[in-house]
Design brief:
The structure is a single chain. The protein is mainly alpha-helical. 75% of the residues lie in helices and 0% in strands. The radius of gyration is 19 Å and the shape is globular.
Length: 289
Amino acid sequence: MKAPLSYLLYTHVWIALGAVLLSEQTYLQLELPMQWDRMTLLIGSATLLNYLLQRIIAVRVIKRDTLSPLTHWLLRHKPLVWSLMGVSLAGVTYGLSGIDWSAFWLLVVIGGISLLYDVPIGKQRLRDMGLIKIFLIGIVWASVTVWLPAFHAGLPLGSADVWLIWAQRLLFILAITLPFDIRDILIDKALELSTIPRLIGVEASNRLSGWLLAGALGLEVVRVFTAHTAGLIYWQSVLGLMVAYTATIVVIRLRKPHFGDGYYLGWLDGMMILQFICLWLATHIPDPI
């Protein structure tokens, strides 16, 4: 991987940007003004800090000869890693100072689950619990990028609108996480971990990603149809997500066994960023009616 790209992907700045833009996308889908404020800073900083902490924890609990190239890269750039952790911690601290206490506790619960993903509980980590881990990833990402912005906007988390976006986001994250489990299928087999690709196979897992994205698009159609009492579908939102999900399916289907971190950390994680861009562009198309 070329040096500039490795700095963007291996520092987790790219995926933190994805978290920020997915959160702003929630405002777009709720037809609210985007809010580039302390909550935005908090989500981006907390995502960056969490991923860096997970790598530091991994160094301490995993044998050095089994560490991933990403973790080895971070070990070679310790000053940069500690600097980014300091910056992200400052961002989290400043972001927390401007949010409601209820949102704070919601963030604590979500952050705790994220950290326990790599922190051993006894001899077991959440990521070593096979089928559970992919759903934990999806739930955490959906909660951070949907519930926190909705709560920040003063919307009730129990509303149908918010829950449909949450479920849609969950399906999307599951779809782009499945290829990571396909990548790790041999490692998981050696560790005797049950994952979806191990249970149903690689090709069936690829098809499942497509069905999950189709389901997510269907939820958006249901959401915007029911949200507009006149029965007029907010077609710009559906169009934007349809383009983004189609591109995501193409990227997933193009996966080859020899593909490295550039594909997984760049292209697959980048589908979060592409989704925001597609939706933002679509919502700026004039409504003909």
